[in-house]
């Protein structure tokens, strides 16, 4: 397998070709999320890295980021949106790109992208007063043999002739196109990619587990879980199916 070259020039060229007019750089860093948050940029910028020694995942977890994967963080202004609204937005952008690559992708609430029930992409969103930092890690050529029961790469499912610069440009083009649409339009697409309606699940929220049946998604993108306490609105957590 040949891993494509990802450097600042190839990324810049791919973004330009896709009409994505933002600043970009491929940087050597332990986490693009951390790097982006320390960068104090003044315009939309994407930072990518060929690997990360301290990749950050949701809920304080580590995100293993070996060479061959596609790791990037977009810095963009929060503007008048809710910072939380960016989670469905990025998830839909990645899922749509997968669909465009003829891949049958699903979104695992809130923002994992799965193929055949295995994780192909993780997304992390952090915000401060002015900017949101949207971190995306996509398994492309990276070796997942140690976690092959839960994770899959684009290479594993037969995608060839793709470069990571092209993937970043495709996701960002989709992101900026979707950003022009209303949040309710984005949520409608988000719901179509979800695989959990009517399913019995357990939501793990650190010390607490909540069980119930998924009865919908709120207008903010939160999970609605019905159990004998009524309808619970869940903003964050990890879900597993319980039947
Ligand atoms: C998750 O699955 O828990 C979220 C993973 C997010 C990983 C991406 S890779 C690029 C960016 N840099 C990081 O350190 N994390 C995000």
Structure described in brief:
This protein has 243 residues and is an alpha+beta fold. The chain is 24% helix and 30% strand.
How much of the sequence is in beta strands? Answer: 25-35%
Distance between the termini: 39 Å
Average predicted confidence as pLDDT: 95
What proportion of the residues is helical, as a percent range? 10-25%
Sequence stretches where pLDDT stays below 50 over 5 or more residues? none
Can you characterise this structure?
- The chain contains five helices and twelve strands.
- A hairpin with a 3-residue loop joins strand 4 (105-108) and strand 5 (112-115).
- It has a seven-stranded mixed beta sheet with strand order 1-2-3-7-6-5-4. Strands 11-10-9-8-12 form a five-stranded antiparallel beta sheet, with no helix packed on it.
- The protein is of the alpha+beta class and 243 residues long.
- The longest helix is centred in the last third of the chain and has 16 residues, at 164-179.
- It is globular and about 55 Å long.
- The site of biotin (BTN) has 21 residues, from helix 2, strand 3, strand 6 and strand 7.
